[in-house]
Structures are given as structure tokens and as C-alpha cells.
């Protein structure tokens, strides 16, 4: 499975989809999961602005949100011009891009933004 599409972890016992992966299924406590693709489009449920991002992130602030993908919710970085650009219920799509630098190494992840 390509790592450039959003994914979740499906419990092999009851089928509950999780993100991120947990040590045990939150529904049945089973410990085995299958990595499965999920939608790259979703709806913003909530968001916040982080004004003191960790080292390796060049911007002075960072927007984070919870995105509902239907079967699972994703928590991630949102790329918009300002907090005024964000509103609950807005549609977002995932893009694979560099999110920070650690020890001169580029770190990639999903960044969400308006379609």
C-alpha cells in the first residue's frame, strides 16, 4: 500500500477502524490490525492554532484540526492563510508534503487544506 494515501488501522476481530493505531482495539480489545486506505477528503470537526510549534517547523504558528473521513477521524496539520480561513464543516483534502526538518532530514506527512 502506498504511504502517500491516508490510512487507518482496521481491527481484525471486529472491524473497527482506528487512527492512530492503538495497542488494543478500542471496541473489542483485540490486538491485531490491518492497515487500510481511507478517504483523502473529509470535513473539519474542530481546529486550533499552535503558536509555539516544535523545533524543525519553520512557520511561527501552525493550524491543527480533526478531520472526519466518514469511517475514521484524522488529526493533522491544516494549511491555510489565517485562522479566519477555517470554519467547522469545511471540506478539506490531504496532500503528502514536507512538514518539518529534524537533524537536516526532511520529514513528510499529510497536510490538509481546502480543495
Question: What fraction of the residues are assigned to beta strands by DSSP?
Answer: over 45%
| Side-by-side strand order of the widest sheet | 4-5-6-8-7
Using the CA coordinates, give the radius of gyration.
15 Å
Average residue pLDDT? 91
Derived from helix and strand composition plus strand pairing, the structural class reads: mainly beta
Count of helical stretches:
0
User: What is the strand tally?
Assistant: 8
Main β-sheet description: 5 strands, mixed, barrel
End-to-end separation: 24 Å
Order of helices and strands: EEEEEEEE
User: How many domains is the backbone divided into?
Assistant: 2
Instruction: State the helicity in percent bands.
Output: under 10%
State the shape: globular
Q: Which regions have little confidence, pLDDT < 50, spanning 5+ residues?
A: none
Amino acid at each position: 500500500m502506498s504511504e502517500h494515501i491516508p490510512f487507518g488501522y482496521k481491527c481484525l476481530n471486529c472491524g473497527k477502524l482506528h487512527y492512530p493505531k492503538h495497542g488494543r482495539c478500542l471496541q473489542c480489545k483485540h490486538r491485531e490490525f490491518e492497515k487500510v486506505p481511507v478517504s483523502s477528503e473529509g470535513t473539519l470537526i474542530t481546529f486550533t492554532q499552535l503558536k509555539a510549534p516544535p523545533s524543525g517547523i519553520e512557520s511561527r504558528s501552525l493550524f491543527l484540526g480533526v478531520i472526519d473521513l466518514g469511517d475514521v477521524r484524522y488529526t493533522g496539520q491544516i494549511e491555510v492563510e489565517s485562522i479566519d480561513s477555517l470554519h467547522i464543516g469545511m471540506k478539506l483534502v490531504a496532500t503528502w508534503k514536507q512538514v518539518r526538518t529534524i537533524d537536516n532530514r526532511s520529514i513528510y506527512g499529510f497536510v490538509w487544506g481546502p480543495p
